[in-house]
Amino acid sequence: MVTTVTEGIERVVISAEEIARRVGELGQAITADYRGGAARDSRRRPLLVVGILKGAMPFMADLVRALDLPIEYDFMAVSSYGNGTSPGEVRILKDLDCAIGGRDVLIVEDIVDTGHTLQHLLAGLSARGPASLRVCTLLDKPHRREVEVPVDYVGFVLPENLFVVGYGLDYAEVYRNLPFVGILKPAYVREE
Ligand code: IMP
Ligand code: MG
């Protein structure tokens, strides 16, 4: 029997309205920065916004529409092996369609947790010689960081030890389509 997606949710942590307001603010800040000197591409090609699949999809869709700049966008997909305790090896499942040498690139992530995923992405992309490389994440868990990574734009900082789902974030691939960010009822979290 089909149930609702909200059935497993204990409580809303960030509402759809709060997300929309913050995405608007981030869009304005990014727009101002790239109009005002953050852009480094000597050939003045549009900013390339890179969404990291699958989690960044809803955030990316809203954020690019809050940018009043000419942009292009593309996607990458990466997979982390291992659990949170072992520094995950990160594998590229889908790479960019275009070269980024000399271009301005903005990575859009759903969440930065230990930082391993982002560290690997940044190392791989900076080796391709972009003119500039910045990061925008919807959510940040700074207290969980295992490696230092530069994050230029943060939507919300999460309090300690909160595993959240919704607005792109999953638990076992489910709950990504929730319009808000919330936490699961204990009964809906499987014992490991
Ligand atoms: P990192 O490499 O530890 O920074 O891991 C980032 C990835 O871990 C994210 O892209 C998510 O897939 C996953 N992740 C970390 N925390 C959460 C959470 O609270 N909810 C859902 N996924 C999470
Ligand atoms: Mg995930």
Describe this entry's structure for a reader:
- This protein has 192 residues and is an alpha/beta fold.
- It has a single domain, classed as Rossmann fold (3-Layer(aba) Sandwich).
- 20% of the residues lie in helices and 30% in strands.
- It is built from 3 helices and 9 strands; from the N terminus they run E-H-E-H-E-E-E-H-E-E-E-E.
- The strands form 2 sheets. A 6-stranded mixed β-sheet has the order 4-3-2-5-6-7.
- The longest helix has 20 residues, at 16-35.
- The radius of gyration is 17 Å and the shape is globular.
- The two termini are 25 Å apart.
- The mean pLDDT is 94.
- It binds inosinic acid and magnesium ion.
- Magnesium ion binds at residues 55, 170.
Short account of what is shown:
The protein is an alpha/beta fold and 192 residues long.
Instruction: Tell me the number of strands.
Output: 9
The total count of helices amounts to 3
* The number of domains: 1
Please state the CA-atom Rg, rounded to the nearest Å: 17 Å
Helix and strand run:
EHEHEEEHEEEE
Biggest sheet, strands in spatial order? 4-3-2-5-6-7
Would you tell me the structural class of the helices and strands?
alpha/beta
What would the average pLDDT be, to the nearest integer?
Answer: 94
The CATH topology corresponds to Rossmann fold
In the predicted model, the low-confidence regions spanning at least 5 consecutive residues are none
Kindly report how far apart the N and C termini lie.
Answer: 25 Å
Largest sheet at a glance? 6 strands, mixed
CATH architecture: 3-Layer(aba) Sandwich
Name the hetero compounds present: inosinic acid, magnesium ion
Overall spatial form:
globular
Approximately what portion of the residues adopt beta-strand conformation?
Answer: 25-35%
> CATH class, anyone?
Alpha Beta
Share of residues in helices? 10-25%
